[in-house]
UniProtKB/TrEMBL annotation:
Protein name as catalogued: Ornithine cyclodeaminase
InterPro entries: NAD(P)-bd_dom_sf, ODC_Mu_crystall, ODC_N
GO molecular function, a single term: ornithine cyclodeaminase activity
Top-rank EC class of the record's enzyme: lyase
One Pfam family named in its UniProt record: OCD_Mu_crystall
Keywords for this protein: Lyase, Plasmid
Superkingdom as given in the UniProt entry: Bacteria
Amino acid sequence: MIPNLNLVPFVSVDHMMKLVLHIGVERFLTELSAYVEEDFRRWESFDKTPRVASHSAEGVIELMPTSDGRTYGFKYVNGHPKNTREGRQTVTAFGVLADVGNGYPVLMTEMTILTALRTAATSAVAAKHLAPKDASCMAIIGNGAQAEFQAMAFKALLGIRKLRLYDIDPAATQKCVRNLRDQGFEIAACGSTEEAVEGAQIITTVTADKQYATILTDNMVGAGVHINAVGGDCPGKTELHRDILLRSDIFVEYPPQTRIEGEIQQLAPDHPVTELWTVMTGQAVGRRDARQITLFDSVGFATEDFSALRYVRDKVAGTGFYENLDMLADPDEPRDLFGMILRAAKPAPVGEAA
C-alpha cells in the first residue's frame, strides 16, 4: 500500500516518555550516543551554520537547522531562566525531520525531553574520548532539569558510579538525589562547589543563569580533570574562570558557534581549539596524558538534534508511540489547492457518512 504522505508521524510528550521507559533510560542513552557519534564521524557531509537566535532580556529563541543532503532536520528551542519562577521549563523544544528529495516532513516530535537526552548523550560521547580512563567520580554543579540525564549518560557510557552534587538551591540537589537514589549511584550532596569537586575526575557544570558567572575558579581544578561545561550556551553567559581555559586543552563542536556562545567567548578569536569530530576520526588527539586538563566547551549543535531525530524515527517505526498528524494539504490535483477548499464545504452524498 502506498503510504499517505500528508500524514506526518508525531511523537508527543506522552509518547516520548513511554518510548524512553519502553526502551530503558540507559539503553536509550547508549543507543542515542551511537547515533550522535556516527554523525560526528561524518561531520563533513553536513550543512553547518550557527543557530539562528533571537535574544531578549528574558531569554533566547533559536532555530537549529542542518542537512546531510538526504535528510533535513531542525529544532526550535528556547532558553528562559526566569521561567522556573513561573512554574515553567527553562528550555522547551520541538523538532522536524524531512526528506530532502521532496521536502515532505517525515517526523515531528517534542524535543524538550529529547534535548535533555541528546545533550547528556553528547557530553558522554565527548568524555569517552577526553576523560581519564579510570574515572569513577563526577561532580555535577547545577542540579536542575539536565542533571539526572548527565548522570545516567555518564553511568551508561563511562561507568560513573560516584556523584558529588551541588546547587545554590538545596531543593534542587535533594530533587536530584531523590530521582537518582535507586539508579546505582553513590551520591554525596555537597554544601559548596569546592566540596563537590573534591576527588572528582570529571566536573560537569550545568547552570541556567543567563550571565557571566564564575561557577568554577582556577584553584578548584587540579591536573588530570575533564571538565564538561554544558551551561554556557549563549552570548554573555559563561561558567568558568578564564584562567581555567588558559590551562586546558579545549574541544568544541562547531567553532563559529562556540566562539559566540561558549566559554571561549572570553578568549581571543584565534585561541586554538580542537573540533570534537577530528578526535573521533583520529585526525586529532584527545587525552594525551594523565595530567592534562581537557575541557569540552559544549553549546549544543544541530547535528546532535539531527542524530536524535534520526534515532527516534527509527525507534518509533512499527510501534504505537506516535500519532499521525494531518498537516500537509494533499489535493487530488496538486495545482488545485483552492478547489480542495471549496470541495471541503460540500455536504456528503445521501447515504454516506459526513
